[in-house]
Write a structure and sequence with these properties.
Elements: E1 2-9, H1 13-20, H2 25-28, E2 35-42, H3 49-60, E3 81-88, E4 91-97, H4 119-128, E5 137-139, H5 146-155, H6 176-188, E6 198-202, H7 205-218, E7 224-228, E8 241-245, H8 259-273, E9 277-284, E10 296-304, E11 307-314
Parallel strand pairs: 2-3, 5-6, 5-8, 6-7, 8-9
Antiparallel strand pairs: 1-4, 3-4, 9-11, 10-11
Length: about 325
């Protein structure tokens, strides 16, 4: 989340530096605070991003690196305060990043599979499917375990970001006592264990080892059962419950495979062994979900690793469907 520090008109580097020096950097940061600058320009006379970053940094009077990587890029300077400078048609907007490390990085996923799913996207799938932790949940394409881990965190009422810090906590005037009280209240709401079973399975035994390691770091390893088995080896489970999963797309991971057969097999196995389970899938734009033999509705559309995808939920069949 960005907090607006100020905005002004500028068409030259000297004007930019002079007006940036009037912004209240000292009101927000200690004299030894380290800044990173991320600059974007569009249809403006000012276009040299590194020169702009250097001038704004100099105007701030604070130490720091001149430039940060593109949004979403890993950056070793993530502990520094990020300042975002956007210039559109010579209008300069300077904002402060209040988050620090990207919000989808919960901190537990150090081991990942071939095509990892963002933590926030996994949580969105679970929430959109109606998952609240009261019913069993299974993910038969678990990979690095993100969906199962997010499910366990939701089931145990662990607030997102409870175990991480935020950039705004280093700002001048941050209400430390109130922040500590909010964290304490969030910790008090955490349940000791998930109310219902959570099963993560994948045919890749290495992925299951990584998933378990991630779950240990997240503090929910005891809430999840990890099985190294293919979809065809799923054990029968009594419903009502929910399957939430991110199957292969045929892009990056499954190139050349007959995905329709895989989706058809998924639909057959779920009907035979998890008959009381609803089904939510993350699938690409091509309607591969039809091969499962179920009818679906679209919950939301987004991208995953740059690939357009849809979260879809089955609307026919077993009880427990959203």
């Amino acid at each position: 989340m960005l907090v607006r520090l100020g905005s002004f008109h500028a068409r030259a580097l000297g004007e930019l530096e002079r007006k940036a020096a009037l912004l209240p950097f000292a009101e927000w940061f200690a004299a030894d605070a380290t800044l990173r600058l991320r600059v974007t320009c569009h249809k403006s006379r000012l276009y040299h991003q590194r020169a702009i970053a250097e001038r704004v940094l100099r105007a701030s009077g604070l130490p720091g690196a001149a430039a940060a990587g593109p949004e979403g890029e890993d950056d070793e300077g993530a502990a520094a305060q990020l300042v975002v400078v956007r210039i559109v048609r010579d209008e300069v907007t300077v904002s402060l990043d209040s988050s620090g490390a990207l919000l989808h990085r919960r901190g537990y996923r150090q081991a990942s599979g071939k095509a990892p799913l963002r933590e926030t996207l996994a949580a969105a799938m679970l929430l959109a499917s109606g998952y609240d932790g009261s019913r069993p949940l299974a993910d038969p394409f678990a990979g690095s375990g993100t969906i199962a881990i997010e499910a366990a965190l939701l089931a145990r009422r662990v607030a997102p970001g409870l175990h991480r810090g935020f950039a705004c906590e280093r700002w001048r005037g941050w209400p430390a006592a109130e922040g500590a009280a909010l964290r304490a209240a969030a910790r008090a709401r955490v349940l000791p264990a998930s109310p219902a079973a959570i099963i993560a399975s994948d045919r890749d035994a290495g992925a299951m080892r990584a998933a378990r390691s991630n779950a240990v770091r997240a503090g929910v390893a005891e809430d999840i059962r990890f099985d190294a088995r293919a979809v065809s080896g799923l054990e029968p489970l009594a419903g009502p419950g929910l399957v939430v999963t991110n199957p292969p797309y045929g892009v990056r991971v499954s190139e050349g495979r007959d995905l329709r057969d895989l989706y058809a097999r998924l639909g057959q196995v779920l009907a035979e062994r998890l008959p009381g389970f609803g089904l939510t899938l993350l699938v690409p734009a091509e309607p591969l979900e039809r091969a499962t033999g179920r009818l679906f509705k679209v919950l939301f559309r987004t991208t995953n690793g740059g690939i357009p995808v849809r979260a879809v939920a089955a609307v026919d069949g077993p009880a427990g469907c959203p």
